[in-house]
Each structure stands twice: as C-alpha cells, then as structure tokens.
Amino acid sequence: MTTIVLERQPLQSAFTIAPEREQTNTILQLTNIAKSYDHKSMVLNDINLSLQEGEFVSIIGQSGAGKSTLLRCINRMIEPSNGKIIFDQQDITSINKRAMRQQRAKMGMIFQHYNLVSRLTVFENVLHGRFGYKSTMQGVLSIYTEEEKRLALSILEKLDMKDQIYKRCDQLSGGQKQRVGIARALVQEPKLLLCDEPIASLDPNSSKVIMDHLKEISQSMGITVLVNLHQVDVAMRYSDRIIGLRKGEKVFDDIPKQLNQLAIRNIYGTSVDELITE
Amino acid sequence: MHVSPLETNVKVRNGRIQITNMTKANIVMRLVLWALLLFTLIGPFFLDYGTITWSTAISLTLGNLKMMFLEPAFHQITFATALKQISMTLALAFLATILGAVLSFFLAIFSAKNLAPSMVSNGIIAFNSFIRAVPTVLWVLIFAIVAGLGAIACVLGMMLHTIAYLTKAFAESFEELEEGTIEALRASGANWWHIVWHAVVPQSSSYMVSWIFLRFETNYGVAVAMGAAAAAGGIGFELFMASSFYYDLHEVGMITYCALIVAIILELVSLRIKRKLMAKS
Amino acid sequence: MTEANILRRKKWRMTGVMIVLIVLTYGSAAITKFNIIEGLFAIPSTLAWMINNLVPSAETIENIPKVLKRLWETIILSVIASTTAAVFALLFAILGAQTTQFNRFFGFVARFMASIFRNVPVIAWALVLVISFGHNVVTGYFALFFSTFGFLVRMFIETIDEASSDGVEALMATGATYFQMVCKGVLPDTMPQMLSWIFYMIETNIRSATLVGLLTGTGIGYLFDLYYKKLDYNMLGLITIMIIAVVFIIEFTSNKVRKVIS
Predict the structure, then answer these.
(1) pTM, whole model, 2 decimals?
(2) ipTM of this model?
(3) Which CATH class is domain C62-261?
(4) Does B141 touch chain C (CB under 8 A)?
C-alpha cells in the first residue's frame, strides 16, 4: 500500500477557483427541504441548511435517517417534494433538465460503491467527469481536449493513482476505486463535493487515506465538502461542522466540540460507547 | 522534445494523450463485432430467394397478420377444444420437465466437480453437449421412428434437452457448496450419500425448484412447436391444422392468442422466481 | 418459533410439494396417454437403433455438398436473424430497462411488445409467413427474427439492469446527457454479456432453423424432412452428424471469444 504524503498546497494551477478563505460565500442554501415517497411518511422534513465555501461538513445519523436522500436532493437526483435549493447564488429548485445538467457539472458526487464503469480504464472513468461540459456527440465519441486530459492526469497524480491510469477499474482495490471516484468528481472542477458514505465499504487504512484527501480538497482548493458518515469519531476528527439527522429531521448543527453524549443520544437514540463498540 | 513530468508513463500518439489501451479483450470484441457486421451485410447475397414479388408478398403478409391478430375467431374448433389442447401441451411439457429433472438430479450429482471424479464429470458434460447439439425436433422425430409418432416421442425428445440444461444448472448450484462443509461432514464420518442428502440437497433445493420451473416455461414453448412439427398433439397441432390444412388465419390468430396468454403467465411467474433467486444470492 | 418447528414445517412443505408433483405427473400422463415405463424403456432401444441405423453409408458421402449447401443457408439465416434482431433488441432494451428507461410508459410498451414477440410461438410466425412468402428463406428469416428479437430484449434488459445501475447514477450526477450515459456508462459494461447472448442466439437459431425449415421447406430442416419421409436413415445420420458438427464449432468459437472478452 502506498503511503500518502499530504501537501498543504493547491492541487494545481489549472483550477480556476482561487481559495480565498477570508471572505466566505454561501455556496449552498437549503430552505425547508422535504421529501416523501408516498405522501404519508416523510423521509426528509423541513431541512434548513447553509454551507460556506471551503467548509467541511459531515452528516451523521442512523441508517434510514435520510442522509442519502438529503444528498441526492441537493443535485436533484431525487426531486425534493418541497423546499428551495440555492446553489452558487442561483435558485435551482425547478430549473429545467438542461440547466440542471450544467449545475450538476459544478457539483461532484462520490458514492459508497464508487459507481465506476468497471470495464473502462481509470483514465476514461475520470474523464467522464467532463460530460457535463460537453455536447452529447463529444461525450459519446470520447472527444476530450489535451487540457482536460492533463487536468485529469494532474489530479490522478495528486491522488497517487498516476501509475494505474490504464488499468481497468475492476482490477483496482476498494481504496483505489474510491480515489478514481474522487478524481472523477474533481475533474468536474466542482464548487461542492457530495460524498455519500465514501468510506463505508473500505478498511480503516484506506478510509483514512480517503478522508485525508477529502479534507485536503476542502482546505487547499476551497471546495465545499458535504459527507454522509456513519462513524461519529471520523466525523468529529475531520469536520468543521456536523449535522445530525434523525428520522428526516435536523436535530444537530454545530461544531464537532459541541457534539457531546447528550447530542449523540439525541441523534442516535443511544450513547456513543455503544456506537463505538458496535 | 521536452516531456513534462506529468506525461511520464503516459501513452501519446500523434501528439494526443491516449486515454485507453488496447487490451486483448478490447481487440477481440471489436474484431467479433466487425466480423458479425460483415457477415450480416454479405450473407444475404448467398441466399437463394427464388421468385418473390416483394410488394405482393409483403402486402399479403400484412393482410394475413391483420386477419390473424385483429380478427381472431374460432371456426373449426371451439374454445373448449382449445383449452383441452392447451392442457395437453402443458401436460407434455410438464412430463418432459419432471422426468428430465429427476434424471438430471442424479446426473448432476455425478457431474458436480466437488462431488464426483473428474472423469465421470467430464463424460457427462460431453454427453450433454452432444444431446444439446441435436435440435429437439430431430430427437423427437428419431424417437418417433422407434416409439411411433405421439406423446412418447415428444416427451422423450424434449426430456433430453431438459436433462442437458438442468444437469448443468444443478451441478453449478451443487458446486457452490463450500469445500469446508463437505470436508467437515467427511471428517465427522459421513459417507458420500449422507453428504449429498444432508448438505447438498437442502442447500440447493430452492435453486433446483426455480430452475425446474424456468425450464418448464421453455418446454411449454417447445411443446407447442413439437405439436406442429412432429404431430405430437396439443395446441401446436391445432395451429398447424388451422394454417396448413384449413388456411383459416382467423382461427390461427385465436389459437395464437390462447397459446400466448399461457406463455405470458408462465413468463411472469418465472420472472418473479428469478427475482427471488437473485435476491437470495 | 423454535428451530425444530421451522424444520418440521419445511419438511411438511416439501412433502406437500412432492405429493402435488406426483399427482400432476400422473394427471399429465393420463391426459397425454404417456406410459412412463414404456417411455423410459424407449430411450435405450432408440439409442441402440441410432447406433445401428443412423450412420452415413458410402453412397451418402456423395451427398455431402448438397447437405453443406442447405446447412450454409441455415447458418446464414441464423446469424443474420440474430444480428439484425440484436440491433433492434438493443434499442428496445434500453427503452425498457429500469436503469435506462426515460419514461415509464415507453418502458412498459417496449417490454410488452417484446413479450408478445417472444411468446407468440415461432411456428405461428412461420406458418403465417409461409402462406405469403412461400417456401422461401425469407419466411425462415422473419420467423427467426421475431422470436430472437423478443428473447434478446428480455435478456438485454436483464443484462443492463444487473450490470450498470451504479455507473448510470454516477454519470447522471456529473451532468451527463442521456445518450452519454447510455453509450459510456451502460454499453461498456454490458457489451460482453450482450455479445455472449448473441452467440447463444446464433447457436439456438441453428436448432430453431431446423424446426422452422421443417415447416417452411427451407434449409437443413427441409432436407431432413425429405429423407425422413423417404426413410433414408443413412442420409439422416449424415445430416444429424453435420448439424452436430456445426453447433459444436459455433459453441467452441463462442466459448473462446467469451473467455477472452469477459
């Protein structure tokens, strides 16, 4: 396993987003978001949330609390039943498919099961992140500019995956696959990274590598990172802010220090000791 | 020329960075696709079309299809006869399936790699691929020479293909039994039959039932065809009579609908079974 | 409920299933007038008969070119029916699969149409087409095409739904268009499996073509029927052996290809 040396510097100059940490802008504003599949039980209920540029925010809660649904409501992979989404100073709640495509290009997404096209090479999978900026034909015929390819290469290099670029994705380990997933999201040059349980299928070592990368991305590139996690300790170690979800409702929203026994019991209905020994 | 460190170990062709490499799998897949395309384009020129007047043939076909599907009606036979013949076809399919399944079970035990010596196993596999290579209709006709045209030839012919199919399916599910389980049983003094009855059968019984039903669905379709091609009776035979003897396309349509409804019901059931199977594994 | 109870219930259920099956078997045997004992004894006697009679003789060898010509016709029919059906089946499967359908209604229509095509008996197609197209290869082609199309749609849909839902979600999240998603997210992962189904269909169609040929007077099926009625068992032996050879060759190639591309 290769060890990761973390460098606290911007990934590379091709990125247009300059990390100006002084003046923080709101990148995402959710107002009264609700979701119900059957018009009876609410999966999400009246969620209000605002994310600042470069912030690292974790969402914790039991499985079934609505974490995944919330994440997918943000890029409208799941249509919220109610509420308003403002992303990058634009109301995207009810914009049409085409406009939404362009907005999705600015939000990277990372999945628990990596969601790679397993028979394609690492390089191809990473470049899929450029589809949002391309015409249908360009995408179908795999026409990428040299600049885009270099961008992909530099990201893969930072993620220590440069030697694997021509490998098929089904030949990679879980940790490597997730790094390809991250690279695909970064190649989008996103303003927001949505991570759905990124380490739930990984061993502790790979998990640390992935979390370190995500933290690094938010700090040095000014990309806002929103992570669903089920490990409270991981959330506390990495996050600037933690959101607690319980049965579709936001029950906690504060810095990690404030997440005490009581708060955890409120989110999970159980104490933290039981959670860790679980 | 200066190569930036970024481009070390990166394939560049004509000044463009390559995003994929040609693996054997990719090359073979492309070759196969091209070969199929070429064959499809050239193949039709080798065929002897005789004398067809395309325009009349096509308009005639459309007219026939309209008579068949939009104006179905019974003339020579009644709905009751059709029902009786469908149950006959189902019965033929059922017999072929159930007899085939019983024989397949024993053959599968001897062809599963973890239960039988490889010589026996390979022998059975070879025998099965021989059975599969001969079309069902030929088997039925060959059986008919000895046993006479009718139910026996039809059931036996279909049974052979059922055996070839189910033996493979059963053996594969037997082979999924973990080596450790067998070893543990053997260590506890169980003999070979004990292992089969107490470890192999309980674990694969639900799989076997599913496979048997899936095959039953296929056999229903085959039984319809055999009724027509090998005069084995059932709904297929009525279909043959209506079209080739009476030239009554309205009736062909009605019979087709009857056969179709049963087939779709069977398909829906087997689809459900398949989903259940997939959810389990 | 205790473990023992569950086991006992399972045992009862198995016994119940057994009884139902036995009753059904006897019922079916009664309907079809099938004598199980007599039937099973017919197998060894038929195999013995085959070994003694179904052998090509010296004269039949001269007929090899004639058989080859018909066999060639059958092969071409099987391949082009499979490939052309596959093209249409792919379109319908993309419309019909859960992961790629862009509209529930169209998805349903695509699946329904395919279901009709595969469940109308092949012989119904053959019998109707033969009335207008006569004893002609075109009859055989369309009969095979319709049933192959229906079957491949079903198999392709299963392939798409099993292999690619993850990649599809990721591509949609990057802002990819529908066609980008299908071409780059679905096809790469499903192509080998689909090719494998096409090969399977070619192999199956060789056998079905024999059946269709029998009914429509084309290809190898016609030839078999001809000598069957003449009771020329030597020729039947030759034809059977040659069919086996062709199926083996196709099976062998498709296994090789499958191994490499998977």
Answers:
(1) 0.87
(2) 0.88
(3) mainly alpha
(4) yes
